[in-house]
């Protein structure tokens, strides 16, 4: 009986240790989804401390982004690396997905210039447009650096602000995607549009997604909640969002159809 109890206790301890490791972070095929415990672990790491001991080496806005989203640690670590990765195409996994998540600070393109900044810091608009255009057309050339370059070349990047709202409609039209713009849509209207195979981009104000301005993609609705692709955050993209939460922060809406 004593040996059996010992085995049971050992199994419980192993299970408890496994649970602790599991809740720290959920690793998906796309990236890390933060838990509070894992966020704390990152912020107490040697890499984090090294960056904030040498803040003069990084743009202030990048450091603020990192504080808001510790998922970016590896990207920020490599910010001054002369061997930065250049643009690459989509992965096989991304091409399999109906609406893949593109992250603006992905090392494949995040370091590339965008206006007075780079895609990783300011490229949420082109990154969202790339997600929408690729998902509706399967055009593998519609990737964030290509859309960012288009935005700059055609005057859609506005110094001190970022991507012009005009880009969210006119860039889509250039790829044969129909774009409709709205100040507001009701929950059922948005749900119906998504059910018909459309995609939605929202310009977001301060709140859950940004301290200033940001773009997100909405691609699904089920059980009275919306699925979002946030180009800034794997964690936000893993959640389901209620209409009232999204709409209270939404400043403009675009609906896209192939």
Walkthrough of the structure:
- There is one protein chain.
- The protein is built from 13 helices and 12 strands.
- With 258 residues, the chain is an alpha+beta fold.
- A 6-stranded antiparallel sheet has the order 7-12-8-9-10-11.
- About 5% of the residues have low confidence.
**Share of residues in strands:** 15-25%
In which range does the helix fraction lie?
Answer: 40-55%
Q: Write down the Rg.
A: 20 Å
Number of helical segments? Answer: 13
SSE topology string: HEEHHHHHEEHHHEEHEHEEEHEHE
Determine the structural class based on helices, strands and strand pairing: alpha+beta
Low-confidence sequence ranges: 12-25
- Give me the count of strands: 12
* C-alpha end-to-end distance: 68 Å
Shape: globular
CATH superfamily of the largest domain: Cysteine proteinases
Average pLDDT rating: 90
Name of the level-1 CATH class of the largest domain = Alpha Beta
Cross-sheet strand order for the largest sheet: 7-12-8-9-10-11
| Count of the separate structural domains | 2
Largest sheet data:
6 strands, antiparallel
Q: How would you describe this structure in keywords?
A:
Peptidase_C39-like; Cathepsin B, Chain A; two-stranded antiparallel sheet; 44% helix; 12 strands; 258 residues; globular; alpha+beta; 2 domains; 6-stranded antiparallel sheet; 19% strand; Peptidase C39-like domain-containing protein
């Amino acid at each position: 009986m004593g040996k059996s109890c010992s085995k049971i206790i050992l199994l419980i301890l192993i299970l408890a240790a496994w649970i602790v490791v599991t809740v720290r972070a959920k690793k998906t095929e796309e990236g890390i989804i933060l838990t509070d415990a894992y966020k704390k672990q990152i912020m107490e790491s040697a890499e984090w401390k090294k960056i904030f001991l040498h803040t003069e080496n990084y743009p202030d806005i990048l450091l603020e982004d990192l504080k808001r989203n510790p998922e970016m640690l590896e990207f920020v670590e490599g910010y001054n690396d002369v061997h930065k990765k250049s643009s690459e195409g989509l992965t096989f996994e991304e091409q399999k997905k109906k609406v893949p998540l593109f992250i603006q600070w992905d090392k494949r393109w995040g370091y590339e210039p965008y206006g007075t900044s780079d895609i990783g810091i300011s490229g949420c608009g082109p990154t969202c447009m790339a997600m929408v255009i690729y998902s509706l057309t399967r055009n593998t050339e519609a990737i964030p650096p290509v859309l960012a370059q288009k935005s700059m070349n055609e005057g859609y990047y506005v110094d001190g602000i970022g991507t012009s709202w005009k880009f969210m409609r006119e860039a889509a039209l250039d790829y044969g995607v129909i774009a409709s713009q709205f100040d507001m849509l009701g929950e059922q209207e948005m749900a119906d549009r998504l059910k018909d195979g459309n995609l939605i981009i929202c310009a977001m104000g301060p709140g859950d997604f940004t301290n200033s301005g940001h773009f997100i993609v909405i691609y699904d609705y089920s059980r009275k909640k919306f699925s979002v692709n946030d180009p800034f955050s794997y964690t936000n993209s893993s959640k389901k969002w209620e209409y009232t939460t999204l709409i209270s922060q939404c400043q403009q809406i675009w609906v896209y159809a192939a």
